[in-house]
Amino acid sequence: MRRFVIGRARNLLENSCQNYQFQRYLLSSSQSSYRFLSSTPVVDSLSSSYSPYSTMAPPITVNTINPKVLECEYAVRGEIVTLAQKLQQEIQAKPEAHPFEEILYCNIGNPQSLGQQPITFFREVLALCDHPSILDKSETQGLFSADSIERAWQILDQIPGRATGAYSHSQGIKGLRDTIAAGIEARDGFPADPNDIFLTDGASPAVHMMMQLLIRSEKDGILCPIPQYPLYSASIALHGGTLVPYYLDEATGWGLEVSELKNQLETAKSKGITVRALVVINPGNPTGQVLAEENQKAIVEFCKQEGLVLLADEVYQENVYVPEKKFHSFKKVSRSMGYGEKDISLVSFQSVSKGYYGECGKRGGYMEVTGFSADVREQIYKVASVNLCSNISGQILASLVMSPPKVGDESYESYRAERDGILSSLARRAKTLEDAFNKLEGVTCNKAEGAMYLFPRICLPEKAIKAAEAAKTAPDAFYCHRLLTATGIVFVPGSGFRQVPGTWHFRCTILPQEDKIPAVVTRLTDFHKSFMDEFCD
Amino acid sequence: MRRFVIGRARNLLENSCQNYQFQRYLLSSSQSSYRFLSSTPVVDSLSSSYSPYSTMAPPITVNTINPKVLECEYAVRGEIVTLAQKLQQEIQAKPEAHPFEEILYCNIGNPQSLGQQPITFFREVLALCDHPSILDKSETQGLFSADSIERAWQILDQIPGRATGAYSHSQGIKGLRDTIAAGIEARDGFPADPNDIFLTDGASPAVHMMMQLLIRSEKDGILCPIPQYPLYSASIALHGGTLVPYYLDEATGWGLEVSELKNQLETAKSKGITVRALVVINPGNPTGQVLAEENQKAIVEFCKQEGLVLLADEVYQENVYVPEKKFHSFKKVSRSMGYGEKDISLVSFQSVSKGYYGECGKRGGYMEVTGFSADVREQIYKVASVNLCSNISGQILASLVMSPPKVGDESYESYRAERDGILSSLARRAKTLEDAFNKLEGVTCNKAEGAMYLFPRICLPEKAIKAAEAAKTAPDAFYCHRLLTATGIVFVPGSGFRQVPGTWHFRCTILPQEDKIPAVVTRLTDFHKSFMDEFCD
């Protein structure tokens, strides 16, 4: 081996045009070859020259990992859920282990886990794109709708070599971005540029990308609604920034007041925080409100005046349940005010996880990025390219969501029926649960105008609050824990979403199937009564 | 509206048990309602009390975004590729625009983009899991192999409610992790725990997760091989850490010397860097070497002695082309040395993107995490849960890769033929290209024992180096640029992977289809000759 090493080294030296550094490098390498060939562990030969204790890396403990990881929290899959999973396993092992037969997960916006069915047309297209070799088989005609076969061909023709297993362009397949841009334009009445679209594995990675871009240090702040979906607080913590809260007004159906934005901005500035962006979740999570267009205009104006990036989380854009409200994208609102690329920096997030499609596990989504300079856009592109691209099935789904079957398509009627069935059912469940909450003593619940959640406020008796303190847990978490162990129902404590200090809430999804809702209502109502009996004087 | 606000507010006040803070909050809200209802932009009413210039957020420019984003680079999709895409568009518009008919992308490990076909059985299973309603149709029997149907049922039974569109457990579907753990055990002969598996959207997000966990500041260092796959340098930069280089020995076929690890570790410590982990890519990227088992034992011993986390990138574990080498996982090597959970912290990365399956676009992969305390594991789980879960298709693929058809299965023969066809072809292409490079004047090329790349060293004439300097570009980038514009061939300059200072390389994949390889060789050879003629005196 050594002869070989030296021979090769000589060749390389002779060939080398810049050999000084390389000579030095090689010399140290050939000396070290001896140690490599020796069976003595390297350390022993050095043990006389160092103390293992002083040079060893610190062990990996919670005290030596990145403190930002410690700081970040994500209650949607937090302690209450871990406990629920444990109880579920106990019931599976021994059905009489608890005073309930099943866990009713109302903690997470995960519709298909609770029986919601996927949109048939979407899954037909995905399956065909996964296995294109069946496209021209006769049996396929009998198994799949004609328009799903046609759409699969169309999509495959947009993918170089029809290779659905290849990495795509870092922003996603161009043809799919064209489709999405066309869908955005059809929705808004204003043009969208496919080059502004970045397809991502769900909306969450896109949010992380923007937080990573905007946050330089803990002196950079991001205005976030309180209550908020805890992806934002987690992401800001992970990226070392500061969450600047603005409080939604529970008394006005979770209204978003620009004066509150202004106040919080000034307060942050007075603390030396540079606020860089405003997060708006519309329709809201966990609060379910749909902003009025005038409100949105005031928000856009605020961002423009203050030079803030507007981060518009619009993943629930298809979930609006009340006739008096309508979803308007912030892109549309900005453009309708005459504001273009030069006026406002806007990032709009969409996902395939919500709406009527509920394809959470497929991890599809995108951000539409407008109003940034070309060189900042290059940086965004660069960060996207480090991860190469998002998953192709998710990309395909995103294009289907933004361009579903149209009137006249073979699948249109069944698509429409599936979609309307899901949305009307969601609206009914939202109402049923809202009414149920409002009947509970000490509980008030705003209407869920949209999204998938209710966020009732619970007024807890003093005795309960003291019991919570004794148990070293927040009062709303105490309530949720008691609820779970008594009934199997899983809500997420409001603390997980933040709330006006001194108020308590919990988030409940509207997703259990309609036939389960009566059980949820009954168990909840009975539990609540006995809880109040126990803790009220 | 105001009457409504005040009425609701009164109700809430009466109901409120802890109303002091809430009263204050409400009072400021009702005052601010006036501004909300007014059509005057909020800013005007405050304009007397602030200067717009001093309070506005700094505009978003490359100088005001996170500098870590600016620092990170990813050459695999860098400038040379952007130029190639531009030239490609020019040829599509005007075929005679350049002295070549097509771009030959040899820059990225993306096999299916260059014609490699997916494994039929894998795609059958994916398609069936995407659209399970066809599973019991008679036409399906005619279109899909019986064992793919059976496997799809098996997988669906492992998914609660058979809901492939639902978010799964944050670490991935349990049943799939069981399959993967069994596959690891079959491969290594040592047990694997499904609870140690974290399924991720490809290996890259798993790498990012570990960097995020381990890097607290720029004082934390990660030992990385030079040359390295630039995900590592990019991730370390994005997380604010320090890359501590260790040089692979080109003269010994890119050997990894433990003495070099020791030297670099000591150097880093003397600069005040706390080295936390060692990255080893085996088989190597871009270098293609497969480590000898003895070498791996020395590496494991080194990590144990120094208390470093071993980050084992093993995504090319199925790509070994030489009979004298074999892939041994670091998990197997550690366990075979008698080292268990208490002895070494080891994270092993695998992906569905490489091997013989090449499913880059599906974004499937996992990390197997062993040797960390329970509370650190909880933190890893928490970070994984912020993104909810990886895409289900990728999870399914990962389980198929670790548990492919077995002897006796209906699909075994065709699966084996597809697999062997791809691997033997890769081995042939590796050899053909290696020989072609070694024939070029001033170029030496180590054998690609594994992975998907060659990393030849080029000795550039002084005149070329000066021309590169004048063009303000690195010499290897200069060569690659010239190569591209003359021939359409896309290599990535070695600078993108780092190299011993003063040496120049480029990375070429072995992925163009076999029938394209002669064209690559001919064009490259002709170009190289004229380049040397131009720049040698």
**What's the gyration radius of chain A in Å?**
28 Å
Give me the side-by-side strand order of the main sheet of chain A: 2-8-7-6-5-3-4
Q: Distance between the terminal alpha carbons of chain A, to the nearest Å?
A: 86 Å
Number of helices of chain A: 21
User: How would you sum up the major sheet of chain A?
Assistant: 7 strands, mixed
Residue ranges of chain A: pLDDT <50 for 5 or more in a row? 1-54
Which second-level CATH architecture of the largest domain in chain A applies? 3-Layer(aba) Sandwich
CATH homologous superfamily identity of the largest domain in chain A: Type I PLP-dependent aspartate aminotransferase-like (Major domain)
What is the name of the CATH class of the largest domain in chain A?
Answer: Alpha Beta
| Structure summary, number of beta strands of chain A | 14
Q: Could you provide a short overview of the structure?
A:
Chain A has 537 residues and is an alpha/beta fold. In chain A, 47% of the residues lie in helices and 11% in strands. Chain A contains 21 helices and 14 strands.
